[in-house]
Amino acid sequence: MDIRLLDAEPTAEERSAVDDVLGAPGSSWDGGDRGSARDSHTAEFGGRATRERRHLLLPAFQALQARVGFITEGGLDYVCARLGVPPAEAWGVATFYAMLATSPRPRRMVHVCDDIACRAKGAAGLCASLEREAGAPISHEPAGDHVALDREKAAWMHSPCLGLCDVAPAALVVEAGAKTVERSIGHATKDGVLSLLGGKAPGPDGASTPHIGRSPLIVGGGLLERVGKVDPASLAAYRAAGGYAALAKAVDMGAEGVIREVTASNLVGRGGAAFPTGRKWEAVRTQPAQPHYLVCNADESEPGTFKDRVLLTEDPFAIVEAMTIGAFATGAEKGFLYIRADYPLAYERMQGAIVQARAAGLLGENILGRGLRFDIEIRRGAGAYICGEETALFESIEGKRGEPRNKPPFPVSYGLFGKPTTMNNVETFANIPAIVLDGGAAFAKVGTAQSTGTRLFCLSGTVRKPGVYEVPFGTKLSALIGMAGGVPEGRTLKAVLLGGAAGGFVRADELDITLTHEDTRATGTTLGSGVVMLFDETADLRDAVLRIAAFFRDESCGQCVPCRVGTVRQEEALHRIASGKMRGGVKGELALLDELGDAMKDGSICGLGQTAYSAVESAIKRLGLYSDAGSATA
User: Fold this and answer.
1) Above 50 in pLDDT, residue 634?
2) What is the tally of helices (H) and strands (E) in the chain?
3) Does the predicted model carry a pTM greater than 0.90?
4) Among 380, 394, 391, 386, which Cα is nearest to 61's?
5) How many of the other CB atoms lie within 10 Å of CB of 377?
6) How many CA atoms lie within 13 A of 96 on its CB side?
7) 181 within 8 A of 202, measured Cβ to Cβ
8) Fewest C-beta in 10 Å: which of 219, 284, 466, 500?
9) Each residue of 595-615: pLDDT tens digit?
């Protein structure tokens, strides 16, 4: 590994950006100027102290990118000197994340989503129009004259799902500078994107007005109860609506009492794995190693998923309160909220909630005057779907490439920084206050015996009223789709994608599926992250399947061979079918896809590779998508 620093020098602007994160350097050993003669021989920080700052690598890179638009050699060199990280290793981290750039980019970038939900709403046509009128998009890596871009001329690029499927097609505009500008753009149009490329200031954030729906069976409470009714930027408004009553009761109940109620509720994780929350919390609480950590996974990057975005932007104090209860129950004094990079409004709202809670004595030292100590730090992702996997997320927080770890050991004993760690996703945490207030038994009465409570579903694609819908477990898929108005009038439903890119397709004649974990497993599909994406006859399902394959090829971390190679070969086979240039005909290509799918399921280290074939397989076997003997059109 190259351990030598580079000859490139950082600019004053780059130094300032990094120092805002790391603090001013104390000596030449820490990246500063040489001071006294003693400074030539004595370091202020030893090896251990330097290694303990490694977790700041990603925030330092993000600060550079936010200030100048990309990570220059001089900027990277300065970060390496400050943190004692070898340049080659730092380069490996910087190039791992899609939202970080190591080649020149303009200060203003417009990321245009071309993933499956946006494609169903015309994103492919939008991108084609932009290419005709604004020129080709730039690449993530240097290509052609990419390295000679005009820094002051805005450019655009393709993007995977931005979590704005309810307002598709979507875009994200980011402008680097002393005060970074970040805005989500909903219902993006050619003229709108061209105006942004021409320098027009972006309007209000497109994620600020979500459409929600609630089942009439939810009489009181529910996860969306405060959305659209309580000011998400006001702690006083949250407390007036009953906020923080649950934390006070939790402290009265004690840690074991809280975990008893969570266990009795039979709450399982809402991120897709459906692991029992109470069992996880108890396992962490009883670990002798200290300290314990608590992490909220807000990196919802599954295409078609945006429910956590709505909770983060519209009810942020509920997440802060729930994390605090979880920390009390599991014995954690430090928490991290890991939020995806392209949720600027969610980041702003959560940061505001944390600051207000801390000022009110609801975070920090002696919470509620009861001796409870806990604080939350937000870490922003940098564009890596794999970081939704818990151990990859730990690696990212620690300042490394987001590559999953082998298990065992499991996170409850060896998690973040090698310590016992509780991790749950946003929706899982959002259920905690109600369980504490009303009791686990009351929570378990809603839904079914094995799938308790309510569930948030993300309706998108060719549906009349896209948005987040809350229904009790046990609701029929047909009833959920009916709440969203079904497909537009005069059109016919063709298929539904359940669970996102890692989920599977079901046919239009299978809408009597009951939305529970046990029923979807029995029917060979999954609830996953709550995606319900509709496709009518105007949608090109083969194009959607190809985009899913491309997504997994892009997002594979490359650590294990079955996933790294299998996702590439899977996409290649689908392209050969689409172009009519099959090897051994359609039958041969489908047999190859089946073999690849088995290899990825059996041999991949994490869920990404294990589910990379799921949607493709369901399209082949359930929809019969390629049953017309090799025709290139659906």
Assistant:
1) no
2) 26, 15
3) yes
4) 380
5) 12
6) 27
7) yes
8) 219
9) 999 999 999 999 999 999 999
